[in-house]
Amino acid sequence: MRTAIRKSLALTAIGAALGFAAQAGAQAPAASGPKTLKMQSTWPASLTLQDNFKMFGERVDKLTGGQLKIEAMAAGQVVPAFEVLDATHKKVLDGAHAVSYYWVGKQKAATLFSSTPAGPFGMDHMDFLGWMYEAGGLDMYWDLYQKEMKLNVIAFPILPSSPQAFGWFKRPIKNLADFKGMKCRQTGIVAEIFTKMGMATVNMPGGEIVPSAQRGVIDCAEWVGGVEDLRLGLPQVFKYHYVPGMHEPSVIGELLINADVWKGLPVQQQEAIRSATTETLVRWWVRWQKQNADAIEEMRTKHGTQILRTPPDILIAFLKAWDEIAKEESAKNPFFKKVLDSQRAYAAKVVPAKRFMNPPYSFAANYYWPEDVRKGSAKGTAKKK
Questions:
Q1: Which residue has the higher pLDDT, 149 or 23?
Q2: Radius of gyration of the chain from Cα atoms?
Q3: What torsion, rounded to 10 degrees, do the Cα atoms 178, 182, 187, 191 define?
Q4: CB 262 within 8 A of CB 154
Q5: For the chain, how many structural domains are there in total?
Q6: CATH code where residue 50 lies
Q7: Could you tell me if 187 and 257 lie in one domain?
Q8: Taking a C-beta distance cutoff of 8 angstroms, is the pair 190, 247 a contact?
Q9: Which domain holds residue 47?
């Protein structure tokens, strides 16, 4: 009797298990094999900015066990560099690798999500990421594209390509007066700021800077600094390189994804993308620091580049011009004001606290690597003990 009961219960359990398994199988999506997302950047293939994009693709591939692949194409392979946003919205591309201040023609607030200008409010990369992930910045970032710009796009921070140099010049500049009237490559809201300061600005992709300088179309140019400028060939056409700049002291580029494409990904693959963006940001950034150091040495020794300190009155004039433009834009653009106020509130806490806790970078740096201020040199000699 007991044996019969046990057999009956076992059969019932097996039947229930099989029924549950059948039901679960009916609800689970069928395996469709590896999926490839076609994405394009705004960068020439030779730049380390493109290396950041490719590193992201490699991480996604490994994190998903090869089930999600990223085709990381360079600028122009499908659409022109500055058309990747619209192409992602229209699903001509599944995604893009860019920087949000390129889109200020559509919405001025776009510049605030690349952390430019002025930090903002003195924030560095980590402060800005803190605002993005801990103070509601990412939610506003998605609102920027979907609600304000009416684009079917989402975004993640991925590319910490700063602090950036002030720029390259064909002749030396000693003060703000020397700066006025020069025709320089600038983009986004930074171009508006420099125009307010008296510069004649020209908007163009990075790949057009060298030929434009060779033809005399521009007298000066701003790109990134360090290895990026070296790879682009700027030391061959400009002799004077000025650092630092206040226009992009902590800029972070973006990974764009079509919102429908994002929603169509399994949760695990979405999480792989989230993890890959943050890992790429850190790993690429630390590699980039060494690449920049090597590039600065090559600029000096091989190309005879004169690396000089940016005249302070130019930097102060820039901050004042930005504050005026930000105030004017806030008065007529509620979303711009909302984002800027959020950043100011976050910076008001973290920037003074970090300044209190952190020693000035120059303190120990000057002790071990004294700087020749007279020449504006960023290169020092180790102090002998």
A1: 149
A2: 25
A3: 60
A4: yes
A5: 2
A6: 3.40.190.170
A7: no
A8: yes
A9: 35-162+251-289
352 with 207, same domain?
yes
- Provide the H-helix boundaries in the chain: 2-27, 48-63, 84-89, 125-134, 137-143, 176-179, 188-196, 209-214, 226-232, 259-263, 267-303, 312-332, 334-357, 361-368
- What is the DSSP annotation of 231-292? HHTGGGT--EEEE--SSSTT--EEEEEEHHHHHTS-HHHHHHHHHHHHHHHHHHHHHHHHHH
Given a contact cutoff of 8 angstroms between Cβ atoms, the answer to whether 53 and 72 are in contact is: yes
- The Cα–Cα gap between 253 and 162 comes to 10
The 10s digit of each residue's pLDDT in 311-362 is 999 999 999 999 999 999 999 999 999 999 999 999 999 999 999 999 988 8
> What is the average pLDDT value for the chain, to the nearest integer?
88
**Strands 167-169 and 220-221, bridge-based pairing:** antiparallel
The token duo for 68 is 């999600």
72 sits in which H/E element: strand 68-73
Token pair for 222? 């701003």
Ramachandran class of 136: left when φ > 0, alpha when ψ lies in -120 to 50, beta otherwise:
left
Q: What is the DSSP letter of 44?
A: -
Please report whether residue 369 resides in a domain: no
More confident of the two residues 380 and 287: 287
Question: Domain ends where: 289, 318, 345?
Answer: 289
Any idea what the Cα angle at residue 270 is, between residues 268 and 271, rounded to 5°?
Answer: 65
Same domain, 150 and 268: yes
24 lies in some domain? no
**C-alpha angle 16-29-39 in degrees, rounded to nearest 5:** 160
84 and 179: one domain?
no
**Residue 92 CB neighbours (<10 A):** 15
Q: Residues of 249-265 as b/e, b for ≥16 C-beta within 10 angstroms?
A: bbbbbbbbbbbebbeeb
Asked whether the beta carbons of 235 and 229 are under 8 A apart, the reply is yes
Question: What's the sign of the alpha-carbon dihedral 142, 125, 267, 258?
Answer: positive
- 261-313 confidence digits (pLDDT tens): 999 999 999 999 999 999 999 999 999 999 999 999 999 999 999 999 999 99
77-114 pLDDT, tens digit each: 999 999 999 999 999 999 999 999 999 999 999 999 99
| Same domain, residue pair 222 and 335 | yes
Q: Can you tell me whether residue 35 is helix, strand or coil?
A: strand
